[in-house]
Every structure is written in C-alpha cells, then in structure tokens.
Records
---
Amino acid sequence: MRTLDLSPLLKSTIGFDHMNRVFENAVGNNDVSYPPYNIEKISEDDYRITMALAGFSEDDLVIELDGGVLSITADGSEEEADPERFLHRGIAKRAFKRHFRLAETIKVLGAEFENGLLMIDLQREIPEHLKPRQIKIGKTVAKPKIVDENAA
C-alpha cells in the first residue's frame, strides 16, 4: 500500500502536525463496516451521528470522549442459553469499537438510544476569540513604551 507523506505541506504550518495522523488513519486499512452509521449535517453548526445497533441495549454501550476522540464501544457478549434456538442468525451482536475524531470546536450535546438506533448530537461552538471581528481605527487605549537605548 502506498503511504501519504504530508511533510512538505507541514513545513510552513504550526500546530497542524496531527493532520498527518488523521490522513494516515483515513488511507490506512481501516475498512471496518460494522456497525453501520450515518453522519448528518442538521444545520450550519449542528451534526448527528446515527448508528444502527439492532440487538443491543443501552446497557451494552459505552460512549466516551477523550482528547477530541469520540469512542463508542460494545462487548457484544451473547447470553444465549440455547445456541440451537436460532435457525438463522442475521442480526449480528458482535463486539465493536468505533472512533470519531472531533474538531476542537465540536461539543457533544448528548446521546439517545431508540428503536435500535444510537443518535449522538454534536454542535460546533466557536469561541469568541476565534470569531471574526472588526478592528476600529482610532486611538489606542495604551501606547507602547519606547525604551531609549542611548539614555542609559
């Protein structure tokens, strides 16, 4: 498999070194398709992750947010006393661990589990210091001190 080298792009940026790991994970052999999920953009700043988890209950699921990574896990242990009970078993209840890397401005609002669907609501919150603002031209509040090197 061909690897992607982003070092030429990263030489003139600061603080984006984690993007290399994101791209490596995206191009790597992460062809996991279970459980199926959707990512929806509800509005300009609202998102929802919906996962199809037939056969699971709320108690089977663990949702964690750690360092900007949202993880949903389930052990999928079966408590079947009689394995011969099923003639066909098409609803999989196997263990999984799904990760979603969230941007720094994304906040997890909550999760809901209904009719076999896990829905996690997310919202983008841009801090005030990152929002665009206009700078008015006028007098400054405090003028910088100019130190005269020859006065010593």
---
Amino acid sequence: MIVEQDVLVRHPLAEYLRECGYRVVEATQHDEARGCLEGGQHSIDVALIDVGGPTGSGFALSAWIRSNYPAVKTMLGATVGKVLALAGDLCNEGPIAAKRLDYRPVLDHIRQLLASRKRQ
C-alpha cells in the first residue's frame, strides 16, 4: 500500500511496482489507509507512508499500523514534491533537464521487508 496525497508522486511509483509484479493499493489519506486495512478486502504486506501530509503525521499512521497490524511492515519516506516546493525559490527557471525517478531503492527495500517477513 502506498499512502501519499500527491498523485504525481503516488501513481508513478505504484505503476513501477505493478510492473515489477506487485499488487498495489493506493491511499491518498491516512483515514483511507486505515479503512483499507480494517476492511480486510486487501492483503497488505508493506505500507509505504509519506511522513507528512495534511491529515496527520506518517509517524502516527506507522505507529497505528504496528499496533493494530503487526504483520504489516511499514516504510516512511518524504516525497520529491515537497522537496521541489521547498527548492522553488532557489530555482525559478526549474531544472535544466528532467530526470526520471529511480524507484529501484524502494523496490529493494520492499523485497528486504518481505524476505524478513517470510523468515519470521
């Protein structure tokens, strides 16, 4: 599950993971993520959570998941969108060349979390 309000961040990462063979649930808000877990309609192994967001801290959501769904591994991250917004004043013209984001480190970490879950 990816919990991220910004569709321009969430969707490309979700598509990348789907292309790697994973089933991905997308949630825009923390309440929506809780609903996905509580509803039981999805089998969620890993939750990738934005540390901020307008509905509360990603740390609080991670703690809630760990308390209520200890089998679900959590990953916290900050989004590129937030970093770009903060850098906007420094770079009025934008970047010289657009770069494609590399999601391999995220994929590697998910694989490690799933492997540790299987060992347990």
---
Amino acid sequence: MAKQDRAIRTRQTIIAAAARVFEENGYQAATITQILKEAGVTKGALYFHFSSKEELAHGVLAEQGQAWSLPARPSKVQELVDAVMVHAHRLQTDPLVRASVRLTLDPHAYGLDRTGPFREFGEVCRKILTAAKDQGELLPHVDIAEASDILVGSFAGVQAMSETLTNYADLSERARSLLRYLLPAAVVPSVLAALDYPVDRGAVVFAEIQAFEGAAAE
C-alpha cells in the first residue's frame, strides 16, 4: 500500500509540475526537461506514468472535470447555477484547473485533443437542463443541446476575458452576470426568482462538496 501511495503522490507531483509549465509557457513551448526540473523527479519516474508530453497534457486537461459531484437541489436550475459558479471558483483558486483551461483554449496546441473539457462541461449542463425541463423549470421553447452549447461557449468567453483583464480576480462576478442575463431567456419566472447566486456561491458550494467528500472518506 505504501508503494502504491508513493506512486500516486509521484503522479500528482508530475501533473502539478506539468500544469505550472504549461500555464507559464503554453503547450508548444513547454518541454519534458522543464517539467522534470519543476517536478524534481527522474526521467524514469515521469515515463513510468506518462509516455509523452501529449499524455501529460491530457492528464492536466482531465483536472477540469474532477469536481462535478454537485449537491442535489430541489431546483435543477439551481444545480446548473452551482455548476457554473463552482467552475469559476476553481479557476480562481486551483492552478491545475487554470492550466487545464489554458490548454483547452490554446490555439497553438497542435495535435492535442482539446475537446474533452468542452464535451464534459457540456454533458454536465445537458444532464442538468434535461432534469430541469422534466420538472417544468424551463420555458417551452428551450432546446437542451442549444442552450448547453450557448452556456458553455459563453462561459469560455467570459473566463478568457477575465483572465486577460484581471487574472481571474473578477471571474465570479462575471459568471454571475452571465447567468443573470442568460437564464431569463430559458427559465420560468417563478424558478428564476428563487435562485441563489451571490458572488461567493461557488466557494460556498465547493466547501460543501469538500466536506461531503471528507466525511465519505472517513
């Protein structure tokens, strides 16, 4: 078990180092040598876990989808709000998630499949929106796939703008503004009026997730 724990810690160390290098240099300019130096591990240890820079990048990209076990809410639209606000919070606080987003939006990451995070976030949104429609929370005209794509694409634009202007400092405010303007086009007024999304909503819900996971691990 101790050997397995060491292997897990080594893998996490390598991914964290790769994330820092990818975030600072971008995918094309990043090198295995830089990642090795940042991680402080041997070449053999790195290649035991990852066979290439591309595989390392996919390991970092996978970090975006690690916290989607959202608390269930009576309102499914509230769950959608929580998903967006938690993602914004993680971008502000987790270097791994920031590196993953940079890779996703890096136009120079030639040959790297960057579709995963978009597809995963889109699937989360479609699942929640489908449940919301089944509960009568959405307006009759709403197309689930279209609404999901608009939300995911709009959030990508908002986070890119926030990164450029404030290094994500105002992302929670921008995410809330995005929801305030998009949701009225899709959500019935009575549900809309009951939604809770203060600026710190993402931090509050993420703390709830961590508390639940901590209790489950004990």
---
Amino acid sequence: MTELEIRTFSAFKEEPTWMKDLRFNNFGSFTTLQQPDIEKVNFHRWDLMGDAINTEYGEELINSQQYQYGAGDAAKIVQYGKETMMEQLPQELVEAGVIFTDIFTAMQDYPELVEKYYMTKAVKPDENNLTGHHAAYMNSGIFLYVPKDVVIKEPLEALFIQNSFVKEAFNKHILIVADTNSAVTYVEKYETEGTEKNSANIIVEVITRPGAKVKFSAVDHLGENTTAFISRRGHLERDSSIDWAIGVMNDGNIIADFDSDLIGDGSHSVVKAVAVSTGKQIQGINTRVTNYGNHSIGHILQHGVILDRATLTFNGIGHIIKGAKGADAQQESRVLMLSDSARGDANPILLIDENEVTAGHAASVGRVDPEQMFYLLSRGIEKEEAERLVIRGFLGTVIAAIPLKEIRDELVEMIDKKLRRIES
C-alpha cells in the first residue's frame, strides 16, 4: 500500500493523532530493521508482510453471521477478517468499568488509556521488521481493560476468523490491561475460511499491574495457505501473574514468539504450549521468560507432536537478569516424532546473570514410549487408538489448563483429526 492508502484507512477508522504518527513513523522505517531471531528455523524467505489491509468483502461477510449464534450471555467478541460482527458484555461488567471492544472503538473512546499501553511496554515497534510492519499495517483487533480491584469470574471469549476468500493481510492486535489487584480469564480462538494465500501478523500484549492475575488461553488454527507471525507478550509488574495455555494447531508455516517479562518483584508466569505439525509445514516457537524482579518465577512447559514430513522447533529461553535475587527459571520442552521423515528440535537456553537463583531445564525428542504402548495393547486396544491415547496424555497438561470445556473439547477434536493421519 502507498502512504496515501494508509492515511485513507487511518482517517476512515478515525484514529487519534498518536496512532497516525505511529503508523507513518514505522511505514518508512520497518524495512531497515532486522528479522526476529528464531533459532534453527529458516523462515527468512517467507512472505510475512502482506500490505493489503482494506479489501472489500462479498457474500462471505453475510455468511459469517452464523458466528453470532449460540453465544448466550457470556462476554464475547467475534471478528471476521477486519470486521467486528459481534460485541457482548454483561451489564454488571459495564457498570464495573470493564472495557471489551474492538481496537478502533477503544482508540476513539479511550485514546489516552490505549496510547499508554499500545506497543509501549510488552512489544516495541522497533524490535524487528515484523513488529515495525505491524505498527504500520495493523487492520483489526480488540482492547480489554479490567479496572482496579475488579475480579471477573466468568471467562471472556474472542473468536477471530481470517477471511481468506479475498487477498488481505490478517494483521490483528490484542491489547489486554489488567489493573491493580484485578483478575480475569480470557480465551481466544483463530480460524481461517477460504484458500487464498495470505499472511498473518498477530501481536498480543498483556500488561498486568501490581497484584493483577490473568489466565490466558488460546487455540490457533490458521489455514494451510496462511503464513504467520504470532507474538504473545506479557509485561508483569509486582506480585502479578499470567498463566498462558496455548494450543498451536495451525496447518500452515508459522513462527511464534511467546514471551513474558517479569518486571516486578514476586511476579509469576507459567507458559504451557502444545503444538502439532503435519504435512510439510514448518512451525518454529520461541518461548522466553525473562526474570527482572526479585523472587520472580518463570516456568515454561512445551510439548509437541510431529507427523509426516513436518518440522517443529521449540526454543525455550530462560534469562535471569543481574540483580534478580531469588528468581526461579524452569523449562521443559519435549517432542514426539511419529514419522521417519519428521524433523524436531527442542533447544533449551538458560542465561543466568545472578548467583542466588534457581534454574533448570529438560529437553527431549523421541518416539512414543514402547512400554506405554505395550500396556495399552495388552489391554486389547487397537494400535492406532493406543497411539492417540498416549499422545493425548502427552499433550494433556496444556489441554487441562484451558478454562472453557467447549474449547478443551474442540482442541482435543483438532488433535484427533491431525492424528488420524497415523492410520494412513
């Protein structure tokens, strides 16, 4: 897109001056930045920077009305491509000051609040060329704000459907701010409709103020013709926590960056991720926890399964910064390979700059445990079903951490569909 087209898009969305400046400052500079560092993944020729951000939709937008059904009274947002199809927030949460709306409405109605946190703490535009590109070409997203001392008991849901019936980049921004001593559970799901080749550049920022608690769950299921960069970042202040549970079930080539910066003393983050790679796809996942605060705790648990000729790479990075006394950094990355042609890597990296800390790692790449298989087969279970049971148990730690039963069941169904290839 030309600068004029971006200015037109920005004006149509009635963006505040600070957002326009952010777009135009990065429009001219992101190509000079380095690519993100994802070790052992050769993604440098992937098309990750689509610039078609305002394509007109046709009948597929009308057909997308189905996603509004069955929502009940739960807090929920549905977006189809760049369009918001549904927003629903219970009245008691509105009265408590909770904000749950699309990103452009939030910029208009709460410009100072969004400006304070949008790409200023968890993610910076100049980190790499993909974050810079996102700052210039973002075309949809949501904003969630939980006020001080507000505890939300029921999960908030977001469904994002990529419209690949048309040529359009899926550049989505999720900004979540949990204010002091608040608590929220948030669940998001990504799907693709259509077969057009498109890129996706998804950035999620979660900022937890002192004492805040966030439980974040996601199921990623982007299509085979989608090449994606997915960055989820946490910025944690004193005594706050983020529990991440992420199912990486995409069908196309993906690089992902799941990071938590434990800024405040006593902050705590646990990242649980499962991934399944099939066909010829490549998925590279960086999961990093950086301990800045004293007595901060950062744990990483990654389990993955590879079929066919696919590739899956887990890079686990635990970094304890000088001065983070009493910090704890632990990680475990394990990969099951179900094909002689599959490629898997589990790379543990510990960077320890302080003495009075606890740190450890475990990593393995292998096949299904023969003893487990023997036990199941001895009980009369068929081989294919036995393999699925072993694998489901292997991935079960993350599945169990997802708060909504409907999402858990859907994730299990996705896993089973991918694993049915075992039989062939």
